[in-house]
Amino acid sequence: MSYFSNAYRKSFVGTKATQAQAASTTAVDDGFIMTQGIATSALSNTATPNTLGPGTYGFFDPATYLSVSLAGPTAALVTTGKPLILAGSSLYANDKIGPFHGGYKESNKSKMINPKYINKWARMQGAGAEQAIYHVGNTNLNSFTATGTLAITAGGTGYTNNTYTNVILTTLTGSGSGLIANITVAGGAITVATIVSGGQGYVATNTVTVPTSIVGAGTGNILTISAIKYNVGTNTKCSFEFLCGETYNLQFNLFGAQVLRYLNHDLYKTLAAYTGCCPTGSLAPTPVDSTLVMINWANQVINDVWMKDFIQPIVYSQSGVPMFATTALAAASLNGIITTLSTTVFQAATNGTYTNIPLTGGTGTGATATVVVAGSVVTTVTLSNPGTGYTATNVLSIPAGVLGTLHVTAQTTTVTNISSPATSANVWTNYVSPGYIAGTVAGLRFIGAYVETTFGNCSFQKTDYFDQEIVQMIVQMMDIDGNPCNANLCSKSENAGFVGQGSGEVVFRDVILDESYLQNYFASDSRIREITQGDQLFTAVPRNQRYTRYILNHSVPRYNNPTGIYDDDQYSLNIYVPTSPGVTAAAFETFVNTWLTGATSSVSLETFDHTPTVPAAL
To answer: Is the pTM of this model over 0.85?
Structure first.
């Protein structure tokens, strides 16, 4: 046995699609063989009656090299915790290279595993990378914007009948400001109040009133805020006032592997924004429209030779309107956002709550839902991420199998409403300042991103760089002395970012390394690679796939040690299965759990799963 630690590790790949037991097929669940009596020599057989081949694995009786399962006579081997071996199919299609050099289709087998000597059983669910998002000032995350409908608690009396547009309402309770609405007066009372701009600083149940200077000399109208958008807590620093005649500095600290590769150090940058001269004759600095300051900073970011490739800014005006650098960016971010879904047909599925399940189909991308299954039937499909680019009447679906083993028919849901499309007002170069609106502050939302060059399979080299770490950032306004603590403009990280788990690039390289210990070397020359079947690994282990990794560590006692000291050989078995949202390799997990229980082992499944963070809708 080699002294290298990787010689004690083996990789098994479960990329074979799930198939039911039939006369011409062996039962397979995410690559795991569930039929007993299949020989290890049949693992590479793609033809009937087995229909297996690359991407299959299972547990086998070391006495017969036949597969065991939880159904049938061999179940006793599992429920009583007898030693087994784990074996997987070869990843190659041909047994020989030329007339003599053969053995490539030999199955990949572990040492005999005694479940009493298993010391680790773990799962690391595959999960995609998440971009870092940082907010400065009032944005969609922390603006306390009133949304929905204003409830007319009291319509009042004596008002002048008419329709009044863009009325700034007066706060009665709470500390919010800037709420703008269209008001209808009929019969001397307020009858309709439609929100135009939600303002900032409100909480639900706060009350406002329509000023008599607008609707005439009446009394008694009270409007109640029913709902708040992105109410995340109080922060007095978000009420900062920008004054004329001042220069405000925003400091950036960008870091992460991509930044280091680009600059060999973190990226520090301070951007200065001057608010312009004060009005002639003013005795003291006066507040200015903070939106103009945010636009100034955003323009510097997108034009900076260092920063433009790492972060993208979105400006939120003092009225809460999101604005982008270009019309194309505005359309890509705002058009076709789903607001409501309608589900009328509910399919059979496995009980549970499934979060952030991607919805496929339609004209857009990015929509996810939370699905609740009770009584073996889907009960609710609730939108969690609205995505972009959809149209009303789009039919979206959750493919069969995503909601457990009972989910055999795709679950569909229909888009019933989408957001209003982007307009010229969503491009900051078109912004026309209305002047300072008392009590309001604009904001900036920064998204970290960087795309590294990735080469295709033909020119792939195992030494190629591939990035996983995301661009991270800290953004703060500095005072005149360069101190961020006294700047008094709120800043908040919505998502620190996540590098992802189960990247196909990592798994592919792990498989290459483990195959080399089986004397199946991955050639760097593309022609030699084709001759030695190395190019078939790209099909067996797609690089663009996310994988869930199972780890089964066990020891093999070494009683005859030349040193005379009892010692163990430690082995790590890594099983990779493609990741599906809300889905695990259930049959494999159940088998191992039953096996460990039968051996009266204290080892249980450890999970290292990641719950995705869904960014707040724009």
So the answer is: no
